[in-house]
């Protein structure tokens, strides 16, 4: 038992990308090709960058000719390549390399992320149309729908920003897309593109209002009284007396 455990520990472990296990079919690989990749990767991670075909065939319990066929298919699918490298002693030798496969896996995942983002954006945009119709209490006209669509496609306003502008319009009882557009344009001029930046703007405005109120409270009562110009009444009386 102890000997088996020691053999198990000496055999070591290998690292496999979970994305590959989840997406190897999308890369065009079948199960046999995946197992070949795992066997080659295991040898590469163990320090043998160009394992013998007979050795891999023994691990997979198949003929060497089958391994050559699997390798050829991986070459054709541009998932595997053989490169010649020079070691520290100046000797040249071949290695198996799966960089092309990882690049394809990267782009595949990126496309999936983009699809998810597009779906989320479409959902958010739909919520914007519904929210505006709800606040306006009516169905939007084709021209209004085109205007909102331009906010997304041309102005690139985020849905959350449009919803905040809608809220500002409702608070001002201005149920108009033109009013919302003016709010969005004013934010754009201030380089405000997110809900967090809108909140920061409101916080700054609130701070200025509080400072202004505090300054008014700190002013002396005399400062609130209108200033009346003083006349030299005594001198004026002297002048009147001199006229008699």
TrEMBL record:
<dbReference type="InterPro" id="IPR034829">
    <property type="entry name" value="DnaD-like_sf"/>
</dbReference>
<dbReference type="InterPro" id="IPR006343">
    <property type="entry name" value="DnaB/C_C"/>
</dbReference>
<dbReference type="InterPro" id="IPR036388">
    <property type="entry name" value="WH-like_DNA-bd_sf"/>
</dbReference>
<feature type="compositionally biased region" description="Basic and acidic residues">
    <location>
        <begin position="234"/>
        <end position="244"/>
    </location>
</feature>
<protein>
    <submittedName>
        <fullName>DNA replication protein dnaD</fullName>
    </submittedName>
</protein>
<feature type="domain" description="DnaD N-terminal">
    <location>
        <begin position="17"/>
        <end position="115"/>
    </location>
</feature>
<dbReference type="InterPro" id="IPR053843">
    <property type="entry name" value="DnaD_N"/>
</dbReference>
<dbReference type="Pfam" id="PF21984">
    <property type="entry name" value="DnaD_N"/>
</dbReference>
<dbReference type="Pfam" id="PF07261">
    <property type="entry name" value="DnaB_2"/>
</dbReference>
<comment type="similarity">
    <text>Belongs to the DnaB/DnaD family.</text>
</comment>
<dbReference type="InterPro" id="IPR053162">
    <property type="entry name" value="DnaD"/>
</dbReference>
<feature type="region of interest" description="Disordered">
    <location>
        <begin position="212"/>
        <end position="244"/>
    </location>
</feature>
<feature type="domain" description="DnaB/C C-terminal">
    <location>
        <begin position="129"/>
        <end position="200"/>
    </location>
</feature>
């Amino acid at each position: 038992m102890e000997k088996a455990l020691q053999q198990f520990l000496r055999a070591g472990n290998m690292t496999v990308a979970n994305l590959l296990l989840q997406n190897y079919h999308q890369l065009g690989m079948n199960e046999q090709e995946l197992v070949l990749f795992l066997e080659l990767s295991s040898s590469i991670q163990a320090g043998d960058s160009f394992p013998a075909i007979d050795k891999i065939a023994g691990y997979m319990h198949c003929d060497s000719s089958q391994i050559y066929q699997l390798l050829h298919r991986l070459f054709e699918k541009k998932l595997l390549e053989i490169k010649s490298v020079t070691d520290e002693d100046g000797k040249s030798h071949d290695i198996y390399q799966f960089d092309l496969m990882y690049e394809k896996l990267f782009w595949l995942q990126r496309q999936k992320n983009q699809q998810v983002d597009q779906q989320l954006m479409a959902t958010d945009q739909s919520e914007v149309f519904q929210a505006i119709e709800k606040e306006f209490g009516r169905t939007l006209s084709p021209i209004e729908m085109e205007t909102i669509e331009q906010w997304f496609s041309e102005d690139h306003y985020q849905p959350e920003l449009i919803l905040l502008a809608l809220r500002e319009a409702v608070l001002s009882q201005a149920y108009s897309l033109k009013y919302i557009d003016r709010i969005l344009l004013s934010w754009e001029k201030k380089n405000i593109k997110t809900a967090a930046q809108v909140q920061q703007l409101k916080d700054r405005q609130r701070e200025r209002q509080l400072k202004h109120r505090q300054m008014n409270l700190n002013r002396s009562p005399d400062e609130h009284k209108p200033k009346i110009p003083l006349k030299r009444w005594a001198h004026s009386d002297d002048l009147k007396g001199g006229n008699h």
